[in-house]
Design goal:
heterodimer, A: 470 residues, alpha/beta, Aconitase, domain 3, Aconitase, Domain 2, 3 domains, five-stranded parallel sheet, 17 helices, 34% helix, B: 200 residues, Aconitase, domain 4, 9 helices, 15% strand, binds iron/sulfur cluster
């Protein structure tokens, strides 16, 4: 088993008791909730006559079902309105702080936690959403959980957990221009597979990670779960501390030095032992595009699609289904594949730096007539900042719709959906069949800059070609 | 809490690797604020066409009606943490899932509902799925104490199951709230020692 890693330190400092099942009772430092996976959990604790054990360590927002065109109440969709009503009444009844539309802080749960300074190194975090791994960028153990576990955290602020192994993933060297954190995370998943991380926590490191901003680290950790890893994290460093300083819930000036000392002490030791170590070179990574129905079915933008028999016997069935569903053929180039929809947003790539990079490419260009394109900021704060910088105008002039904050077409529980057989270029995290709201709909995942390049050309393109000419 | 030692019944095979939670339960059904109706929706888009007519998915074939053991392949339940996925299977009638491998959040969610997730090798699963297809009336018995699957009363194969999950099921502690609540004083003590909880 791993020794001396951040994983071990956070685990040990939060372990309450060994349970008779063999699992460990783990204290959860921060519980984030949203409208979709909480109503049943609140009902369950109400039924048992329990309260929220640590209401001051619980924070709520709304993101999955909220419409991004008009957020006027009542919502057009009666079911969405009912769900909104449920979280509003639950947070009131149980005394949980709630970042709603009026707060100016509403947004995708994994975007607002860091933005508000709630997410801090050395914490355990839980949220009823699998992309909770995002918060690992700060050196936390952040678990996506099911609704019954949300009930447990509400009622006890604890989870019953099994210990994981730790795999260190090094990416060393410098990323090439036009290659983003999204490409790094898709590349790692392509190499290790969607099942590769089962049973592991992923510790990301190496000089490429050292050089990344917090927002880039979040993009990588966000998709740890797509590689099968329950959590992913980066050790906290000066970049982490600089990001947190001055944020609403971050420690104040009087406590700052003490906090930083503690945070530093939680990082993996120099001589930490891992259960597994994998090394990649940053220079080998190209802009990545998924062509299939699992996030590991991807290629570099200039590559041809792989032949079915290049996969192991295990994978052949999924690969055949992928080709059939996507209406693509082995041997064809991914570049030039026509798209119908371009979507920029989600907890993977809906932060301000993502929008800035996308706007750089969109500036002075026009979305192809055949493409429906929209940009959905990840939070109200991201939206306000983008508008202050004039990014909304750049997008609108280029032909992108500018929306309000929410999950939007990442999972299509709201009005933003693919129709029929449409194919999208998306900056989100899942290309599963039916994920974007149509069971025949198709998704190609890529970086926000690559989404803009595809929107402009009307086909999958290499964003680096546009960068040369701009 | 119920101790779950044995599960007996017919088995329904749903073949394919990497069957994700969006395929098990499409996101539009997550808009309901209770789990009450979830039994109507498992694999919905794979079972019904646009007119709502069944397409011949195993969950709709008469020979598999009344099955309570689900036979799957690799990485079943990958993707989202939505508990709606195991809830929909459970409310359709599934009491145990046997597969080659499971996504972790999914397997954890199953355990919390009292549904064992047992694993067997690829070859054994091929054999099991073939048997369920050829003789759908076969009676299986999943014995969690012995970690043995019986068919028609005879030992069929040994399976694996994560030990803590098995313990929780056979000892009736799979609904963890009461277990965790019992340690409330210790929880407060651990919380009190964390610098970020006490405000540094
Ligand atoms: S943006 Fe997508 S992945 Fe992220 S929380 Fe929303 S639905 Fe989940």
């Amino acid at each position: 088993m791993a020794k001396g890693t951040l994983y071990n330190k956070v685990w040990d400092s939060h372990a309450v008791e060994k349970l008779p099942t063999g699992q460990t009772q783990l204290f959860i430092g921060l519980h984030l909730i949203h409208e979709v996976t909480s109503p049943q959990a609140f009902d369950m604790i109400a039924e048992k006559g329990l309260k929220v054990a640590f209401p001051d360590r619980t924070f709520a927002t709304v993101d999955h079902i909220v419409p991004t065109k008009s957020q006027a109440r009542p919502f057009e969709d009666a079911e969405a309105e009912q769900m909104m009503g449920a979280i509003e009444s639950n947070v009131k009844k149980f005394g949980v702080p709630f970042f709603d539309f009026k707060s100016g802080n509403q947004g995708i749960v994994h975007i607002i936690g860091p933005e508000m300074g709630l997410t801090q190194p050395g914490m355990t975090i839980a949220c009823g959403d699998s992309h909770t791994s995002t918060h690992g960028a700060f050196g936390t153990l952040a678990f996506g959980i099911g609704t019954t576990q949300v009930r447990d955290v509400l009622a006890t602020q604890c989870l019953a957990m099994d210990e994981l192994k730790v795999r260190r993933i090094n990416v060393n060297g410098k990323l090439n221009p036009g290659v983003y954190a999204k490409d790094v995370t898709l590349y790692i998943i392509q190499k290790l597979g969607v099942k590769g991380g089962i049973g592991y926590a992923y510790e990301y490191g190496g000089t490429a990670f050292d050089a990344m901003t917090m927002e880039e680290r979040m993009t990588v950790c966000n998709m740890a779960i797509e590689g099968g890893a329950r959590v992913g994290y980066v050790n906290p460093d000066q970049t982490t501390f600089d990001y947190l300083k001055g944020r609403k819930y971050a420690p104040g000036a009087d406590k700052w030095n003490k906090a930083v000392t503690y945070w530093k002490s939680m990082a993996s030791e120099k001589d930490a032992e891992f259960d597994d170590v994998v090394n990649f070179n940053a220079a080998d990574i190209e802009p990545v595009v998924t062509w299939g129905i699992t996030p590991d079915q991807s290629v570099g933008v200039n590559a041809k699609l792989p032949s079915v028999n290049s996969f192991s016997a295990d994978e052949v069935k999924t690969v055949e289904l992928a080709y059939k569903h996507m209406d693509l053929k082995p041997g064809q180039a991914i570049k030039g594949t026509p798209i119908d929809v371009a979507f920029i947003g989600s907890c993977t790539n809906g932060r301000i730096s993502d929008l800035r990079e996308a706007a750089k490419v969109a500036k002075g260009r026009k979305v192809s007539k055949s493409v429906r394109a929209f940009v959905v900021p990840g939070s109200q704060q991201v939206k306000a900042q983008a508008e202050k910088e004039g990014l909304d105008k750049i997008f609108s002039e280029a032909g992108f719709e500018w929306r309000a904050a929410g999950c939007s077409m990442c999972l299509a529980m709201n009005p933003d959906k693919l129709k029929g057989h449409e194919i999208s270029a998306s900056s989100s995290n899942r290309n599963f069949i039916g994920r974007q709201g149509s069971k025949e709909g198709r998704t190609m995942l890529m970086s926000p800059a690559m989404v803009v390049a595809a929107a402009v050309a009307g086909t999958v393109s290499d964003v680096r070609d546009l960068m040369k000419t701009s | 809490m119920n101790k779950i030692n044995q599960i007996e019944g017919k088995a329904v095979p749903v073949e394919g690797n990497d069957i994700d939670t969006d395929r098990i339960i499409p996101a539009r059904y997550l808009k309901e604020i209770t789990f009450t109706n979830m039994g109507k929706y498992p694999f919905y888009d794979e079972r019904f066409d646009a007119q709502g007519k069944p397409k011949g998915h195993p969950f709709d074939l008469p020979q598999f009606a009344g099955s309570n053991i689900l036979l799957v392949n690799q990485n079943f339940g990958c993707g989202s943490s939505r508990e709606h996925a195991p809830q929909s299977l459970m409310r359709w009638g599934i009491k145990a899932v046997i597969g080659e491998s499971f996504a972790e959040i999914f397997a954890g969610n199953c355990t919390m509902l009292g549904i064992p997730t047992a694993t067997v090798s690829q070859a054994e699963m091929a054999r099991l799925q073939a048997l369920a297809k050829e003789k759908p009336q076969t009676k299986f018995l999943l014995d969690l104490d012995k970690k043995v699957l019986f068919s028609e009363g005879k030992e069929h194969l040994k399976f694996d199951i994560h030990e803590s999950k098995r313990n929780a099921l056979v000892n009736g502690t799979w609904d963890s709230t009461s277990l965790l609540l019992a340690n409330a004083p210790k929880t407060s003590a651990v919380a009190g020692k964390l610098p970020y909880v006490s405000g540094f």
